[in-house]
Each structure stands twice: as structure tokens, then as C-alpha cells.
Amino acid sequence: MPRARTALHFCYDPTGERYGLPTYPWRMAPAGLATRRQLLALELRPGQREPVAQILWRRGRRRAYLYEIAKAKPKRIPTLAQLAAIERALAARRTCTRCGTDAGYCLPRRWDGCPACDPAGTVGAPAGAAGHPIP
Ligand SMILES: [Zn+2]
């Protein structure tokens, strides 16, 4: 019977010989590296840096890129004007183009307006099912 294939078998490649990027299993990455979300928690961002390593888990089916903490840049803080612009853009996506009501959620672009305005009642049906051609 062949030996069981472990996380080390699939996910340990510190030289990058197999994956082209130094690769570690879950929880085995060296210190000084962090994922994008870990950088964000430190109020940092990768900047223009490429990842220097990766973590693979679930037999290599899941991947997270690692960046050097020392070379990360400070997180950019949006200005009030930028936040206002985002809010306006999201409001536009929530607003029905036909009746102008705010649906309270972002309306899918394939819908023709809000559920109340969709005359064919195609909301919830697959696109193209009731006369709405797939774009
Ligand atoms: Zn509407």
C-alpha cells in the first residue's frame, strides 16, 4: 500500500522548484510574511509588490499569496469625498431605473428594474426564461 500523501507532499516547496514560488503548508510559512488580509489588519498593503511566497492547503487546491511585511506600504485611507462617491455609486446600483425606488440591495443588472417593475415576472427565473434574452 502506498504511503499516505500528506500536506508536506503537496504543499512544501521552500525553494519554489515545483510551483515557481516558495510554497509552504498551512501554518508553516516563515516569519516576516503575511497574506493580503493579514497586512490589512496591520494597516498595510502590498503596494506594487509581487508575492514572494504562497501557502497551499487542501492538497494544493487552496492558495494564499504571501507578501513581505517589511516592504509593505501603509494602507491608503479614503478621503470623505471618495467615501461619498462610493456611497453614491452603491445607491445607484440599489435604485430601480424604472420607478426610482431604492430596493435596499444591489439590483442585478440582468433584471429589468426592481422586482415590482419587472413585467414578465422573471425575477428568480433563469435569465432568458421568459422573454428576457441573455445579453
Ligand atoms: Zn422599480
Describe it.
This protein is α+β, with helices and mostly antiparallel strands. It has 2 domains: 7-74; 78-117, no CATH class. It is built from 3 helices and 6 strands. The strands form 2 sheets. The chain has a 4-stranded mixed β-sheet. The model is unreliable at 125-133 (pLDDT under 50). InterPro entries: QRL_CxxC_CxxC.
Layout of secondary structure:
Blueprint: H1 7-11, E1 23-25, E2 33-34, H2 36-41, E3 44-45, E4 53-57, E5 62-68, E6 73-74, H3 80-94
Parallel strand pairs: 1-4
Antiparallel strand pairs: 2-5, 3-6, 4-5
The structure holds zinc ion (ZN).
Residues 96, 98-99, 101, 113-114, 116-117 line the site of zinc ion.
Structure described in brief:
The protein has 135 residues and is of the alpha+beta class. The protein contains three helices and six strands, in the order αββαββββα.
Shape: elongated
Return the domain count: 2
Q: What proportion of the residues is helical, as a percent range?
A: 10-25%
Largest sheet: 4 strands, mixed
Structural class computed from helices and strand pairing: alpha+beta
User: How many DSSP E strands?
Assistant: 6
Q: H/E element string?
A: HEEHEEEEH
Strand order of the largest sheet: 1-4-5-2
Q: Provide mean pLDDT, rounded.
A: 84
Small molecules (ligands, ions, cofactors) in the structure? zinc ion
InterPro entries: QRL_CxxC_CxxC (IPR048142)
